[in-house]
Amino acid sequence: MNDVLPRWALVLATMGAGALLMGAIPPLIEGMAPGVPLMWWVGRTAGLVAYLALWLAMMFGVLIGSRGGGGWLNNGVVFELHKAWSLIAVLATGVHVLALVADAHSGVPVLASVVPLVSPRLTAAVTLGTFAGWGLIGVVVATLVKARLPTWVWRAVHAGSFGAFLLALMHSVLAGTDTVTAEVRLMYAGTGTVLLAVVLHRLALASLNRVETRRAG
Questions:
Q1: How far is CA 216 from the centre of its chain?
Q2: Are 131 and 112 within 8 A, CB to CB?
Q3: Mean of the per-residue pLDDT values of the chain
Q4: Helix-strand-coil percent breakdown of the chain, rounded to 5?
Q5: Distance CA 39, CA 82 (A)
Q6: What is the DSSP string of 101-119?
Q7: Which of 103, 132, 182, 216 could form a disulfide with 39 if both were Cys (CB 3.0 to 4.6 A apart)?
Q8: Greatest C-alpha distance within the chain
Q9: Coil, strand, or helix at residue 147?
């Protein structure tokens, strides 16, 4: 029997998890900044969800390359989760950007969401977010036209998701007003550390496989 869960079930489950996150984060934000405008709430909540979804998409993407973490996880399920969290990351990023440009108090014009270095407020932080957004769009477009691209081109563009994640992390740290709290700083440090550990584990497995291949040959 195929033990890979149906795609629709995985998508619904991950979107449900995203909805729970969006329901849990606003009370935390309210405690940090009571009385702030609704669009600020939406923007910050969507931003945090987008970051966490991107982190999970990266995690599952790395696990695909290591064949489920060296056999610990079902690679089919990991692949579906990677796609589902990638979708949530894209959707949440779109909501985050729309909420910010719609918030009259954000100081971020519409043009700054697509053009680097034009935001009059938090210029560097917003620019990092703009570059991260373009990087994410590039990966999505490359994936959609994967069949028409040489394998090396698709792999190179897909590897750019690591750069997009690092830019998103720096953007979140510099632009997020909630970064002053210990809980949020710990979240950023923890997610970054865990992703690094998973990447190192994948590299170690690849190195071990090469050694075993040479010995077998």
A1: 39
A2: no
A3: 80
A4: 85, 0, 15
A5: 29
A6: HH-TTT---GGGGTSTT--
A7: 103
A8: 68
A9: helix
Q: State whether residue 49 is helix, strand or coil.
A: helix
Q: Measured between alpha carbons, how far is 177 from 44 in angstroms, rounded to an integer?
A: 9
Tell me: the pLDDT tens digits for 149-162? 888 888 888 888 89
Q: Look at the alpha carbons of 159, 164, 167, 173 in this order and tell me if their dihedral is positive or negative.
A: negative
Q: Which amino acid is at 85?
A: W
Q: Tell me 121's DSSP state.
A: S
Sign of CA dihedral 135, 140, 141, 143: positive
Q: In 3-state terms, what secondary structure has residue 151?
A: helix
CB atoms within 10 A of CB 204: 12
Buried b (16+ CB within 10 A) or exposed e, 120-153: eebeebbbbbbbbbebbebbeebeeeeeeeeeee
200-207: long-range contacts, CB 8 A cutoff, minimum separation 24: 201/66, 201/69, 201/70, 202/62, 202/63, 202/65, 202/66, 205/66, 205/70, 206/66
d(CA 85, CA 29): 23
* Helix (H) or strand (E) run with residue 184 in it: helix 182-216
**For residues 2-13, average pLDDT:** 54
Instruction: Please state the pTM of the whole predicted model.
Output: 0.79
Give the tokens for residue 100: 């910010």
